[in-house]
């Protein structure tokens, strides 16, 4: 080929054109194919980026914006707030002896619904397992019964575990170490802290102290706390109970009430209750309860009450009913036994009320202890005839003899000289018809008819202790005024409150009322010594059996007719037999009041409570080492023959 030929293009043939076109076509297709792959890859890549962006955004949202709320929700699912019971305050006697206190115990509980589900899940995961709901509950019932043998039996526990319910309590008063051991073996059992009320004296002063227990009507089991039911436990519940605290705990599975040990943390500490110091002397209270109960049985009485007051302060050293209860054993409680008739049940006292007339007669100067009066055997008062307890014609009585012999007629003659207005005022000063404010629940004020409602026959009843009613505390309070030189001090049974910080807060001072002058009170007190006088013939008082050797005793017997529930009239065989006494009369230390409810008056002791006073007074002289009187009570004339 020449150079000129090399410079010209060679003509293409048809074959070469086709080859060139085919090659170009393949090249374009290849380019289009590669571009399609790149497009699909880009789309996938963009989709992945979008997913990652969304996931990242969600992660940021969860971690940054919703973290607190989600964490709180998770925490709520596995935490619970439960109450921390407050330590209930103790009740102690005047010497610090404990009458009631609390000890820490545990309650065992089971979420039965969760237990059944957990056992079903275990069986589903491992069909060959021998652990089932029945085997698990059977083992638990056997183990708990052996650990707490004094409470429920194995069968009773098994019945509780298999009952058709979602939740159950198994045991309550379980020692903390025993409860921990049980939970260690059966982790599905939850433990609740509680307090158990202990009464070491059993029935000792139970009518005063009362009882406290768990409230069974509280629908929120996590807030169960001891509450007073009767007595001071009820009356002073706010002081004794304290303030419960709150605790945050983690629970297994979030809602099955099984607390994870070691997760407890306090939100608010419990504040213990205050202690109460009483005026009661435990040894004396025991003795009065025992002697009263024995005497009620001996006289076949329906019941009885007795009280011992400090002659100066009015403090209650003992307050007893013949019936009582053991606050440790709820299964034995009855409404009658748990009542406190010494403060809730007034009665017509009979002749012990004659001290009002005696005081008025001496204080007004219408009589002296030695002055005399002609006393017939009966007296017409309005539409009724009043008799003395024994038949006699007109006799000459000294004023002292009228009360020592308990002459109804002589008392009414003196009361008529005194006048209704003066007598009515004395009833108020002696505290009759008014609550004493002793500090016990359900106290009765007794009953005194309003002066505006008196009729002629009313004033024929009141001076001899009929037509009005009083509690044993009110009755003893009248004689406390005479023992305390005419100053009546309202009785009290709580001496002080001791706060959780140890600070003692005395109770408010009781109200004191001047009834009569000190000289009048001493004269009446000396005059009433003749009630226990033992003389010849008619020179004996009504209660020589009340005398205590070596001590001067002032007192008064009483026999008050009861209203027959069938006839609604005064009965000729149902009586209130009463006695009120001052020990010693020359230097008063104690006042004792006694009432027997409808004793059998045909029995030797059934017509008089003086022997019971003698026994109680004798114990008082020994227990409190009371010095002997300066001398014996002088013998004085009662009837002038």
UniProtKB/TrEMBL annotation:
Region described as Disordered: 1-36
Family annotation (Pfam families): PBP_dimer, Transpeptidase
Subcellular location field: Membrane
InterPro entries: Beta-lactam/transpept, Beta-lactam/transpept-like, PBP_dimer, PBP_dimer_sf, PCN-bd_Tpept
Domain Penicillin-binding protein transpeptidase: 305-616
Coiled-coil stretches: 105-132
Residues that span the membrane, as ranges: 41-60
Composition-biased stretches (Low complexity): 12-32
Signal peptide as annotated in the record: none
Domain of life: Bacteria
Keywords per UniProt: Coiled coil, Membrane, Transmembrane, Transmembrane helix
Domain Penicillin-binding protein dimerisation stretches: 84-252
Family per record: Belongs to the transpeptidase family.
Name the record gives this protein: Penicillin-binding protein 2
Species annotation: Amycolatopsis melonis
Lineage of source species: Bacteria, Bacillati, Actinomycetota, Actinomycetes, Pseudonocardiales
């Amino acid at each position: 080929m020449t150079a000129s030929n090399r410079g010209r293009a060679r003509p293409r043939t048809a074959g070469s054109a086709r080859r060139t076109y085919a090659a170009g076509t393949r090249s374009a297709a290849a380019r289009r194919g590669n571009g399609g792959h790149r497009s699909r890859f880009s789309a996938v890549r963009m989709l992945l980026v979008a997913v990652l962006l969304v996931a990242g955004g969600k992660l940021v949202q969860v971690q940054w914006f919703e973290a607190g709320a989600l964490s709180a929700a998770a925490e709520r699912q596995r935490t619970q707030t439960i109450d921390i019971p407050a330590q209930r305050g103790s009740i102690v006697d005047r010497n610090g002896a404990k009458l009631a206190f609390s000890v820490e115990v545990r309650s065992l509980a089971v979420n039965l619904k969760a237990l059944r589900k957990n056992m079903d899940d275990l069986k589903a995961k491992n069909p060959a397992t021998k652990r089932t709901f029945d085997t698990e509950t059977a083992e638990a019932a056997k183990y708990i019964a052996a650990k707490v043998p004094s409470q429920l039996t194995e069968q009773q526990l098994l019945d509780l575990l298999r009952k058709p319910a979602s939740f159950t309590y198994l045991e309550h008063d379980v020692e903390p170490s025993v409860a921990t051991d049980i939970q260690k073996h059966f982790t599905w059992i939850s433990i609740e802290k509680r307090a158990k009320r202990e009464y070491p004296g059993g029935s000792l002063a139970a009518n005063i102290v009362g009882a406290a227990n768990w409230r069974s009507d509280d629908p929120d089991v996590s807030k169960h706390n001891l509450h007073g039911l009767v007595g001071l436990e009820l009356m002073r519940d706010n002081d004794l109970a304290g303030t419960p605290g709150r605790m945050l705990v983690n629970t297994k599975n979030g809602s099955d009430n099984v607390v994870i040990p070691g997760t407890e943390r306090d939100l608010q500490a419990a504040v213990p209750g205050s202690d109460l110091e009483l005026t009661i002397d435990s040894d004396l209270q025991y003795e009065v309860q025992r002697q009263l109960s024995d005497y009620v049985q001996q006289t076949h009485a329906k019941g009885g009450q007795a009280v011992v007051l400090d002659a100066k302060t009015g403090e209650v050293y003992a307050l007893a009913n013949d019936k009582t209860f053991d606050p440790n054993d709820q299964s034995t409680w009855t409404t009658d036994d748990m009542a406190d008739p010494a403060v809730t049940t007034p009665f017509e006292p009979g002749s012990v009320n004659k001290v009002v007339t005696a005081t008025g007669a001496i204080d007004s100067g219408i009589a002296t202890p030695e002055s005399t009066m002609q006393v017939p055997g009966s007296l017409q008062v309005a539409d009724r005839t009043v008799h003395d307890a024994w038949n006699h014609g007109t006799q000459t009585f000294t004023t002292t003899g009228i009360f020592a012999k308990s002459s109804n007629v002589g008392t009414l003659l003196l009361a008529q000289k005194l006048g209704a207005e003066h007598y009515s005022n004395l009833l108020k000063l002696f505290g009759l018809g008014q609550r004493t404010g002793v500090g016990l629940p359900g106290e009765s004020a007794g009953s005194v008819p309003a002066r505006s409602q008196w009729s002629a026959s009313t004033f024929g009843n009141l001076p001899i202790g009929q037509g009005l009613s009083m509690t044993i505390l009110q009755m003893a309070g009248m004689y406390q005024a005479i023992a305390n030189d005419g100053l009546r001090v309202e009785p009290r049974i709580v001496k002080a409150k001791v706060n959780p910080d140890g600070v003692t807060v005395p109770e408010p001072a009781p109200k004191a009322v001047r009834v009569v002058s000190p000289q009048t009170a001493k004269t009446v007190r000396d005059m009433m010594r003749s009630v226990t006088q033992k003389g010849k013939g008619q020179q004996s008082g009504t209660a020589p059996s009340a005398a205590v050797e070596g001590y001067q005793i002032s007192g008064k017997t009483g026999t008050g007719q009861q209203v027959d529930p069938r006839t609604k009239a005064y009965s000729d065989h149902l009586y209130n037999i009463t006695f009120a006494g001052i020990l010693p009369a020359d230097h008063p230390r104690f006042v004792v009041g006694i009432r027997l409810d409808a004793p059998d008056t045909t029995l030797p002791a059934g017509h008089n409570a003086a022997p019971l006073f003698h026994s109680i007074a004798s114990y008082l002289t020994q227990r409190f080492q009371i010095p002997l009187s300066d001398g014996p009570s002088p013998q004085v004339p009662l009837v002038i023959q």
